[in-house]
Amino acid sequence: MPPNPLIGVLFHWLGGLSSASFYVPFRGVKRWSWEIFWLTGGIFSWVIAPWLFAAIQTNDLLGVVAQVPASVAGYCILFGILWGFGGLTYGLTMRYLGLSLGMAVVLGLCTVFGTLIPPIFNGDFHAKLLATPSGRTILLGLIITLAGIIVVALAGARKDAALFQEQKSAVVAEFDFRKGVAVAVFSGIMSSCFAFGLAAGEPIKALSAAAGTGPLWTGLPTLCFVMFGGLLTNAAWCGYLIARNRSAGQWIGRAAAAGTEVSRPPLLANFLLCALAGTLWYFQFFFYTMGESQMGSYGFSSWTLHMASIIIFGTIWGFALREWKDAAPRIRAMVWGGIALLVVATIVIGYGNMLAA
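^ that's the sequence the OP posted. Answer follows.
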């Protein structure tokens, strides 16, 4: 069956919804330090979910993994380590800026680097993006995406300028615009390394296909390698924080600070919420690989679709969580204008891929 870019766009929307939703369960975790709930959720994201779903959907997963050249595995893990720095600071961005504004700034940079660098690196930027109607249409979609991201980010900046610190802190407890933007810039650049890891894993997809795996699922083994790299970065940082803060006891119900029984964390609820958050984080890439399989020769455009979808649903979550409740009506209208641009961009990019099908 030939690729179907419209189905690919749908899969990317599902991936964007998963990514935009992953931090919501973390908000319900009680009396666990950040490093405890981040690492707990991450174990599901980086280890349990990737291997579980790859084992279910890949024919002879261990046989495929055994055939992966060491250099290919090394590059996938290396880019995963770099992506891990982006993931760490992505979580900090949510703390300082909130869901909607944090995602807009991070993913704007991530979109540019993750979409454009692979074809530039492969030497086919002109052939794929400038020399054909399909490529030019996809490039137009990228430009519209960036325009939508800028509109959302500007709306966030105007909201920040108009609100008192008490209003900001009432919605985002640790709100800090300057610190948040600085962290978001670093996070956006490093997070784009995930796209490079997927590109480095193309030989793994070929091995998976040769083993008889269906086209929708050939990218799942690559996720095992890239996300393992992310595990190394996040586990190292969280381990340092756990040792410094002496917070490991929270996993077994020890209170975060000396106090009464009330201060003890609700273990079952916390573990379940972290498992949900971590699995949602993984599902963004699960659906990403499915969407990419439907985009044909312009698979790199999947990154733009993915980023746009995350911002669309992240902003919707921001409104649902009342992050914009104190913003002026014109600023809220500005945000929805940015979301409209992003929706149009996903349609334009999907149409550009259809032209090449």
